[in-house]
Write a structure and sequence with these properties.
The complex is a heterodimer. Chain A is of the alpha/beta class. The longest helix of chain A has 14 residues. Chain B is of the alpha/beta class. The chains are: A alpha/beta, B alpha/beta.
């Protein structure tokens, strides 16, 4: 389905009912909204794994503006403030209240934008393999991990791509560095082929906010329980970036889970992470 | 979720994704929607609670959410809406499933079945309600005598007593799958996939 939000039609898909029969009444399940990474990827990266939560939530997959099956809209509106506001308006258009918003990587940037711009709206946040600011402060950690998993050549590619990006480094990045994001190599083959990808929105973000965004000053506005998860072997968003993110959120609201031997989107490498997420949803 | 359609906010719920991973592609599954009566939707003006409006609402609902070529299942009162929608918006639905419904209400037929399966008193209650559907006491008589006959298997019926809303029809539990779930649900599944 698609629905018009802030002038563009956003694609969304759903797994699991909101209302389920329970004795004499209909029990209401919480709504879990999944925000995909990239930008330039789409919601399919969460399928089929996240449909497992359909027994405890209504799971909603969304393609951000400019991504996947959603309309592109004007390029000027491809920014984190707009993506965050789109999520808020998407919920208003469909009367989704107090959602549990789950963002991985770039999806986490959008979740943070939404939660800091509309702090009263989310019920809970799950921020996986993401950061509150651009990743330049973590460059050396990132390069060292890419070198560890891909050799000196990939380490060198990482340093060049993350500091002096060109269309050529981006091409090389997608074929050589992306598969190293996870230890189980989920970013290749069918899983990549299934995604409707947009290089334009990726280039636009990489050439702009990617190196400049900084939401650290806004983290104090987050007003809901928040789970921060990261993989200790994540070369793209090193675990230090999640540690710093968690440290910026009120201690009474935040829980930080480090996952050993796991990379970017640690649930891809270690299915026990799904149990942690399930417990947080139900808590 | 609810979404605004023709000036009222309609409640809808969803089960199962439209796109499912299948090797290197996302496979598209047909849509089976259930408008779930009018319980959680806005009431809107009473004059608009007519079958043709519900049929048009269904079409507009699909347009707003870009649902194309849906499989529409209507049971009982929902079937009246599905029939009207199928006729007013030909070519829109991919398939229709019309369960426990009719194209025209024939009161005599209903009274005869009640008389055969119950008592003359129940048949009189049915007759009265069919003549005076807007009368709350007539509806109570039907609820007491007619509704228990809807199914052979006992049902946890949870329709609401709201005789002033025709929506109450859709809450009734005489869908045939309630009595023979395995057989009927298999027929529906086969039809969806055919």
């Amino acid at each position: 389905m698609r629905v018009e939000v802030n002038g563009v039609r956003l694609f969304f898909d759903v797994d699991g009912a909101k209302l389920v029969p329970e004795g004499p009444k209909m029990r209401e399940q919480p709504t879990l909204i999944l925000l995909h990474g990239g930008p330039g990827m789409d919601h399919s990266t969460y399928k089929p794994a996240f449909s497992q939560f359909a027994d405890v939530c209504q799971v909603i997959y969304v393609d951000h503006r400019g991504n996947g099956r959603s309309e592109r809209g004007p390029h000027e509106a491809w920014n984190l403030a707009q993506w965050g506001d789109d999520l808020f308006e998407f919920c208003r258009a469909l009367e989704i209240e107090r959602p549990i918003v789950f963002g991985t990587s770039f999806g986490g940037f959008v979740a943070l934008s939404y939660a800091t711009r509309h702090p009263e709206h989310p019920g809970k946040l799950v921020l996986a393999s993401t950061a509150a600011q651009n990743l330049l402060p973590y460059l050396d950690k990132s390069v060292a991990l890419f070198e560890r998993f891909g050799g000196a050549e990939i380490g060198d590619l990482a340093r060049r791509h993350l500091t002096r990006r060109t269309p050529e480094t981006t091409d090389a990045w997608i074929t050589q560095a992306l598969p190293l994001y996870t230890r189980t190599r989920t970013f290749e083959g069918d899983a990549l082929a299934r995604a409707v990808r947009s290089r334009k929105v990726l280039d636009h973000f990489q050439d702009g906010e990617w190196d400049t965004f900084d939401l650290r000053a806004d983290l104090a506005k987050i007003a809901c329980p928040t789970l921060v998860i990261g993989g200790e072997d994540d070369p793209m968003t090193p675990i230090e970036s999640q540690a710093d993110l968690a440290a910026g959120i009120a201690p009474r609201l935040v829980r930080f889970e480090r996952v050993r031997n796991a990379g970017h989107g640690p649930y891809r490498d270690d299915p026990r992470v799904f149990d942690v997420i399930r417990e947080f949803i139900g808590s | 979720m609810r979404v605004e359609v023709n000036g009222v906010r309609l409640f809808f719920d969803v089960e199962g994704a439209k796109l499912v991973p299948d090797g290197a592609v996302m496979r598209e599954k047909p849509t089976l929607i259930d408008l779930r009566g009018c319980g959680r939707s806005d009431p809107g003006p009473a004059s608009a609670r007519i079958v043709s409006q519900w049929a048009d609402d269904l079409r507009a609902f699909c347009d707003i959410l870009e649902i194309e070529r849906p499989i529409v299942l209507g049971q009982s009162g929902g079937g009246f809406v599905a029939i009207k929608y199928g006729a007013r918006h030909r070519g829109h639905a991919c398939k229709l499933i019309l369960a426990s419904t009719q194209a025209r209400v024939v009161p005599g037929r209903i009274v005869d079945v009640v008389r055969r399966r119950s008592t003359p008193e129940a048949a009189a209650a049915a007759d009265r309600w069919l003549r005076e559907p807007d009368d709350p006491s007539a509806f109570r008589g039907w609820s007491a005598h007619g509704v228990p006959l809807y199914n052979h298997a006992p049902q946890g019926l949870w329709y609401r007593h709201s005789p002033d809303h025709l929506e109450s029809f859709e809450r009734c539990g005489h869908g045939v799958w309630r009595d023979q779930p395995a057989r009927v649900l298999n027929v529906i599944r086969e039809f969806i996939q055919s």
